[in-house]
Design brief:
It is a single chain. This protein is mostly helical. The protein has one domain. Helix content is 80%, strand content 0%. The chain has two helices and no strands.
């Protein structure tokens, strides 16, 4: 084998070795990115579940707020807690502005 053939042979081996290193690095990178993707997807699913639960809680709180804000509920609470009642017609006083 001449020096030129030996140099070309070593050059070809270096190119093949370089390609193998690049293939291995690329494979490791793909595996790492896939792992990150799975982690982020799991986090997304968890956050969507929390968002759904918050939406359910919000609806429940709206129902509770409307129940507490009804006039009948306020009137019953005033009667029970403060012994209030609706005035009779002789108890009503009309005040006129001067």
């Amino acid at each position: 084998m001449t020096a030129l053939e030996q140099n070309n042979f070593l050059s070809a081996q270096m190119q093949i070795a370089s390609l193998w290193v690049l293939v291995v690095v690329t494979a490791i990178s793909v595996a790492y990115v896939s792992h990150l993707c799975r982690e982020k997807y799991a986090e997304l699913v968890m956050l969507e579940g929390e968002a759904n639960q918050m939406q359910v809680d919000y609806g429940r709180y709206l129902l509770e707020q409307s129940a507490w804000g009804s006039l009948q509920r306020i009137e019953m609470s005033a009667m029970a807690k403060f012994n209030m009642h609706s005035p009779q017609s002789d108890e009503i006083v009309i005040v006129r502005a001067p």
